[in-house]
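Handout, tutorial session.
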Amino acid sequence: MSAPSSTEHDQLLHVALELHPQVALRPEPFGALAYHYGNRRLVFLKHRDMVAVARVLADHPTLAAALEACDIAPARWPSFAKAFASLTTSEIVRER
């Protein structure tokens, strides 16, 4: 299985996402720990901006709208799309 291309990551910007209902976020000085109670995966969110966006995903129609609401500079959006693609693969976030 090949890694998603940047175009596929960019497409994620137009998708409605949410934290999986079985995921808990525990705040940490570096960002947060995300624990999925269903599959027992533990993921480190290594930046506070990632945590802020993850917390508001369900309140916005797309990932791009959530990034905009959190005042994330558009130049950083591709890296966020890549990170959220990884979180989708690990079932920390999901499409809604």
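The second record follows below. Compare its token runs with those of the first.
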Amino acid sequence: MEFKEVLKGIDSLYVSYKGTIKEGLKERLEEKKKLAQSEDEKEQALAVMTIDDHCFEVSDRGTKWYSFILVDNWYHLQISGSKRQKLPQIYVQVSSELLTCYGLDNAIINLRKIVNMLLEKIEEETISRTDVFTDFVTNGELETIEKVSWITRAQKTHKYWNGDIFTGWTIGQGGDILARLYDKTVEIEKSRKEYLREIWEKQGWDTFQRVWRLEFQLRRELLGQMKINTFSSLMEKINDMWKYCTRDWLRLAIKETTINRTRWKTNPLWEKIQDIRFNDGKFTGILREVNKSRIPSDKTLFQNGIGYITAFAAREGFENVDKGTLSEYLEKAKNYLREQTNGKDEDYLKTKIGNKKKKYNKA
């Protein structure tokens, strides 16, 4: 049976921080949030906050426990602003791209710099959730796996199809551990995590095979039971955590005739998965640059833009798209906009650009 790892590591990380927010921070956040809530688009464009070298968009809303939300392509920060000591003042989601390409160590060092600019002192730093994963290719027929072959402590098991194409399993929905086994090559068509293709290819992926991801999502209660509270303990115990997930909590077995399923032999594919090790807890990343800004891709900008320009060219009788076509398009677009805005087209465009900069985390 063919089995090849093409990537492994930590895909999701949620961290909470206890401490006292710095003097005046709550007032600054309230001011920025009000700007985000304004009906005036010029004021909305000012709802940004620069911390270290990050230009965060400040959301116009919060959550039940956190009044303020700051977002860029690296971090999703929720800030309480409350003086209640039971609730962590800051709750952060670290982006999966950052963890994969920049590494856990680097991601956390940078995050602490940001948090130290928000809190007088970090009194407690706790991992609230983590997802550990492996990406692999195999010639095993995963779609033929039967529900009965999963030996698990979980109560809920679901198999997923996209039409006639098998796409994966979820096991343990709603519990402290959630396992997902799914076709990552299909998933990234929606998530647009194209950087994964480049990483897989460097690890020997032939670009034609389906890449499968097995990931385990572990929540705070179980992490606490495993005494995984800090980053150092996560890195120290990552292999023990994987061992527990793939041997004690979940196992793929070969269906047999005996009633006691726990005695069924382990599927050879699963044995390969059980043997995976995570570099003794060292996660330096792929060392690929990760943009802090949430900028649109060239594909998004140009594919959509070219569609409109070629439609204009066809309508106006042009045979191709050249400087003359673009000049005509721009002139007619500005004339149209000038009519729609009663001569305030330049002001309108500046406002729109300002709001796009806020959305894309561009200062």
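Points raised in discussion: The CA atoms of residues 186 and 208 lie 12 Å apart.
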